[in-house]
Design goal:
- There is one protein chain.
- This protein is mainly alpha-helical.
- The chain folds into three domains: about 60 residues, Multidrug-efflux Transporter Regulator, Chain: A, Domain 2; about 35 residues; about 120 residues, no CATH class.
- About 65% of the residues lie in helices and about 0% in strands.
- The protein has 13 helices and two strands.
- Strands 1-2 form a two-stranded antiparallel sheet.
- The longest helix has about 30 residues.
- It is rod-shaped and about 100 Å long.
- Keywords: DNA-binding.
Length: about 240
């Protein structure tokens, strides 16, 4: 006499719902029925359920197991692929843990890559300038971002920067011109100009392309800075 569905589930260490689901997705053949209409499972059904349970425990999906067909007794190729995926996942988690350790040790912010955050940790940036840097970190090539962060590492607050931060949108032309001249003479601004002589130089190797990156940076600048501030930035780099 065979086993009932509940007995099969108990022997396999699973649930009635799981057994029924295996039937629904075609992973477990329907058993013969007794005279009273109840299902009667045999050893092959138990072996099949245990095998599916083992493979799902290793990480294969039910769809992958179904694709194996008769090869599920020792699905070498599928298991090798799974092993490669697990190795990649372990390596990714190792990198994440290393970055977490760095963030915790340095009490660094999480909206910037750890190396960039460490480089500009001493820079007294305004909220707008910092937000701009966060966006650049998503847009620039690693080399350009490292160079930009390197210049920021030498940033120090100057009265001209405070005046720029407080500049009203309706500032007159003379005020804008004089402020642009003062800012252009700052060591930080000179170093940035020397590092990126042309605006396009910062875009070299941008992962999303130079044109896209230029448009994105333009939108960010317009959103972060008011009309007068944008005008001063243009004059600084003109």
């Amino acid at each position: 006499m065979g086993w009932s569905t509940s007995q099969l589930a108990d022997l396999a260490g699973t649930t009635l719902r799981t057994i029924r689901h295996y039937h629904e997705v075609g992973l477990l053949a329907e058993p013969e029925r007794r005279a009273n209409g109840y299902k009667s499972y045999g050893v092959p059904h138990l072996v099949r359920v245990l095998r599916v349970k083992r493979l799902t425990g290793l990480g294969l999906s039910l769809a992958q197991i179904a694709d194996l067909g008769d090869a599920d007794e020792h699905p070498g190729e599928a298991l090798r692929r799974l092993d490669a995926e697990l190795a990649a996942t372990i390596e990714r988690l190792r990198r994440v843990r290393a970055e977490l350790a760095l963030i915790l040790r340095q009490e660094a912010p999480t909206d910037l890559p750890s190396d960039v955050a460490a480089t500009i940790a001493g820079a007294d940036l305004s909220p707008q300038d910092r937000s701009f840097t966060v966006v650049l970190a998503q847009l620039l090539a690693p080399e350009a971002l490292a160079a930009y962060a390197g210049v920021l590492s030498g940033f120090s607050r100057d009265p001209a920067m405070d005046e720029f931060d407080d500049l009203p949108a309706d500032a007159d032309d003379g005020t804008r011109r004089r402020l642009a001249e003062r800012l252009r003479s700052l060591p930080y601004v000179k170093e940035m100009s020397a590092t990126f002589p042309r605006a396009e130089d910062m875009l070299v190797g941008a992962p999303r392309g130079e044109e896209f990156t230029m448009r994105a940076i333009g939108k960010v600048i317009v959103e972060l800075y008011n009309e007068a501030q944008v005008d001063v930035l243009v004059r600084m780099n003109g």
